[in-house]
Design goal:
Chain lengths: ~500, ~350
């Protein structure tokens, strides 16, 4: 353990050289700008820059630091467009959008942005501690996670999120169902048989998540604004404070801690990653808050939880990447490419053979995280001012941003048609009071759930008993049942007590 | 207490005057626009393009980017070669683009591998055929392997196949590709050699070799079918044992000493080549010109280094030889799929004739 700390210190010594600091700064800047375009996202930004880095002859550690800077910058850039404009570009940002954009509408956009940066930082810091102390243990834990366990985890996630959408359970279920249906479009992940593609090659890969998200959230937002705007009045008025009070942060300490722990643990599981982490931490926070929470209406905890979880998951994903050679997320897949390009094969022996690289990578990620905080906290006030634009400037801007982002994903005009259709659908759903986030949840988790269910059954030869054979999966099933039953039971006892109290009065 | 979700319509708060801060907002708008203008993946074609039929980061993307980089350092090309990512349908979108939009266009190159020929042979690109494009060449390759966990009872391929023949239902294989994809085909080929009925082979697809290998190490499956580069990181830990390489000759490096499948009595090879095709309708001179360019890349020091970095082994086949190699491969894969009863209903894996 002390050894790990010492090696982490060495990693920081490398990361803190002047050239590397400059690269981290530049990376965060570029990343923030690129990240505001939701379709590009960190993965593509890094992938496109990689060959340039190799060609440019930067030393490996410096390349990694630049990449880490870009990664954090673009995550945050994405938070900016999510919180201020309701244009989420990643699945985890969808969760942030729920309360982040609600805060903006309530005139607390600056606060939400600052909170997002601070939460990311806290998530990053805590999960680095997790890496130092738990990496070897967790690597062997991740190997035990088979298809049945993954399936149980998904069930738990859906159970924890059952109240994500507020009061109307049937409507939330309908939205989740729609998401799951959309997830089945395209080539079946197991056998590559096309499903619901109507012979369209463009639909073979399914409906891209970015297309659905931007359509449902951003395009419908534009339509709604059209609905309620006359003569181009500003979309959002008040700005409120930009700064976060220390006392408020202290009040959220437990939320941040829970978000980081959940995020880190889920991040360790390959394939699940940041999306599941942010959705789950949000769901857990919401359940814990019970009727005290104002989730969905701009509760700051609804920003703090997913943002810390998402970042902690990014660090957690380093464990399967570096110790098993399995990229846990799109970003780590690209990092894996970068490592291979440096003639380093991530694998079970990496931590023993080249600890300087492992900890150098961790330190770079952390330096990127710190720079993000330093650079962006002072700039929050500037970003927020984009909202001062009158609606007749801002809304066409959001429309342009949405369509360019969607086009950037696949370079396909077909997606532009799709995003418009989803925009109309989103508009109708909002008018009808159907929540949008469960659609995204279903779309993202659907394939994972399907694949793991089918794998589990293929492994067992069709025996459903395989779902409950390991302690781990039984525990997850129990947690899922608890997530469904406990809030209801609490509510019952509370009501009972209140009723009892009324009688004695 | 009931609370509304953010998805519910909200009334906008009262009006606010843009005021002198407007300048700042405009500046941010401009930055956004700058960001936008530099990010469109496809613009008017100048110079040449290499189309990677997948997202950045994978094998096809790498093939394109490395080749483009090397070609750009020479004067073999009229302009600069750019890499364009055109993901979709396992390469089908790019293939359809080549056929429908780029016929006769000598400024574009498409990355390919056996995943392309396998899908063509199984009719997974719809009505499109391998003969609709011109096959240019391959510059490197990987070879298939069959591995078991180190605590497994089988010490060599012969023992495994014996056990398999005796009780096919008791053995589950993991691989990183879909059903009837590359990793599944390797096992089906071995099964055919061993006289095991293909439909009794139990194959479970995972997302990539890494996950499939983890399932092997975690004890969820008995056998792993994949690529040489995928197991190398695990070999040194002693967690897995490679029973055979599906190569014409034993490999060097970490896999030295592992017999080929042929040596073990099952003559099966699986070459995962990395190469290119051109659109159809090219003039012969244009094809020859590309052939010369690719030859030049393949023989360069730069490529040898990049190939080693990407963990590919030498495999150089360019021009008409490659064309006939591909045609043969497609018809072989087609025959195999028919034999295995996979072609009924576009690779659905249903009952064969």
């Amino acid at each position: 353990m002390m050894e790990s700390l010492g090696q982490l210190g060495m990693g920081f010594a490398v990361a803190l050289q002047p050239l590397n600091l400059a690269l981290a700064l530049g990376g965060v800047l570029v990343g923030t700008v690129v990240g505001m375009l939701p379709g590009i996202g960190p993965i593509n930004a890094i992938a496109i820059l990689l060959p340039l880095l190799f060609a440019g002859g930067l030393p490996p550690e410096s390349s990694l630091i630049l990449l880490a800077g870009i990664y954090y910058g673009s995550q945050y850039g994405n938070s900016i467009s999510t919180i201020l404009l309701n244009v989420p570009g990643t699945a985890s940002a969808v969760v942030t959008a729920l309360d982040g954009h609600a805060m903006t509408r309530a005139g607390r956009g600056g606060e939400a942005l600052a909170l997002s940066a601070v939460s990311s930082f806290v998530g990053g810091t805590l999960s680095i501690l997790g890496l130092v102390f738990l990496a070897p243990v967790l690597a062997s834990w991740a190997v035990r996670f088979g298809p049945a366990e993954y399936f149980a985890l998904m069930i738990f996630a859906f159970a924890a999120l059952s109240s994500l959408s507020g009061e109307s359970v049937p409507r939330a279920l309908a939205s989740t169902g729609l998401g799951l249906l959309l997830a089945t479009v395209g080539m079946d992940p197991q056998s590559a048989v096309p499903r619901f593609t109507f012979g369209q090659l463009r639909l073979f890969d399914g409906v891209d998540f970015v297309v659905v998200t931007i359509g449902l959230f951003a395009v419908s937002e534009i339509l709604l604004t059209l609905d309620r705007t006359t003569w181009g009045r500003a979309a959002v008025s008040a700005f409120g404070r930009v700064r976060l009070g220390m006392s408020e942060l202290w009040g959220m300490a437990l939320t941040l801690l829970r978000g980081s722990v959940v995020g880190f643990l889920v991040g360790v599981l390959p394939g699940a990653g940041g999306t599941l982490a942010s959705f789950m931490s949000y769901g857990i926070e919401q359940k814990m808050a019970g009727s005290d929470g104002r989730f969905g209406e701009g509760d700051p905890r609804g920003v703090a939880a997913p943002e810390s979880a998402n970042n902690a998951a990014a660090n957690g994903a380093m464990i399967p990447l570096l110790t098993l050679g399995i990229p846990g997320s799109g970003t780590t897949a690209v990092l894996l490419g970068a490592l291979l390009g440096m003639n380093v094969t991530p694998g079970p022996l990496l931590m023993e053979r080249s600890p300087e690289l492992f900890w150098g990578l961790v330190a770079s990620m952390y330096v990127g995280n710190v720079f993000l905080l330093l650079l962006n906290l002072p700039l929050v006030g500037v970003f927020v001012r984009v909202l001062r634009l009158p609606a007749w400037v801002l809304m066409p801007g959001v429309a342009a941003l949405s369509f360019v982002s969607v086009y950037a994903v696949n370079g396909s005009a077909f997606d532009l048609v799709l995003v418009t259709l989803f925009g109309a659908l989103g508009y109708l759903m909002r008018k009808g009071g159907f929540p949008l986030a469960p659609v995204i949840l279903g779309l993202v988790l659907g394939p994972l759930m399907e694949k793991n269910l089918r794998r589990a059954l293929a492994l067992s030869g069709g025996e459903w008993g395989v779902m409950f054979t390991s302690t781990l999966s039984v525990a997850l099933w129990a947690a899922a049942v608890a997530a469904l039953v406990l809030p209801w039971a609490f509510e019952r006892t509370r009501r009972f007590r209140r009723a009892a109290g009324a009688e004695t009065d | 207490m009931p609370f509304r979700s953010s998805a519910m319509p909200h009334r906008p708060p009262a009006v606010n005057r843009p005021g002198r801060r407007r300048g700042v907002g405009t500046a941010i708008g401009l930055v956004l626009l700058l960001g936008l203008s530099s990010c469109s993946p496809r613009s008017e074609a100048r110079g040449t393009e290499c189309v990677a039929p997948a997202n950045p980061g994978g094998g096809w993307d790498l093939t394109c980017r490395v080749t483009a980089r090397i070609l750009n350092q020479t004067d073999a090309l009229p302009g600069v070669m750019r890499t364009v990512n055109m993901p979709g349908a396992g390469g089908g979108v790019a293939f359809a683009h080549a056929v429908a939009r780029r016929g006769g266009d000598a400024t574009v190159l498409f990355a390919a591998s056996p995943a392309t020929t396998l899908r063509l042979a199984q009719g997974q690109y719809g009505p499109l055929q391998a003969t609709d494009v011109r096959w240019l060449g391959a510059l490197g390759a990987e070879y298939g392997i069959v591995a078991v966990a180190s605590d497994s009872p089988w010490e060599d391929l012969g023992e495994l196949m014996e056990a398999w023949r005796a009780r096919p239902d008791s053995i589950v294989v993991s691989g990183g590709s879909a059903i009837v994809g590359q990793d599944h085909m390797k096992i089906l080929l071995l099964a055919r050699e061993a006289g095991i009925e293909p439909r009794r082979i139990r194959y479970v697809p995972f997302d990539g070799g890494g996950e499939a290998l983890t399932a092997l190490v975690g004890g969820f499956v008995e056998v792993f079918s994949g690529e040489a580069s995928e197991v190398e990181a695990y070999l040194e830990t002693g967690a897995v044992r490679v029973l055979a390489v599906l190569a014409p000759e034993p490999l060097d490096g970490l896999l030295a000493g592992v017999p080929t499948a042929r040596e073990s009595g099952y003559p099966v090879e699986w070459v995962t080549w990395r190469g290119f095709y051109l659109p159809g309708g090219l003039q012969e001179a244009e094809y020859r010109e590309w052939e010369a360019r690719l030859e030049r890349v393949g023989r360069s020091e730069e490529w040898a280094r990049a190939r080693a970095q990407a963990r590919l082994r030498p495999f150089h086949l360019v021009g008409p030889d490659f064309e006939s190699f591909v045609m043969e491969q497609v018809s072989e894969f087609g025959n195999l799929a028919r034999d295995l009863g996979l072609l009924d209903g576009a690779g659905r894996g249903g009952r064969g004739p």
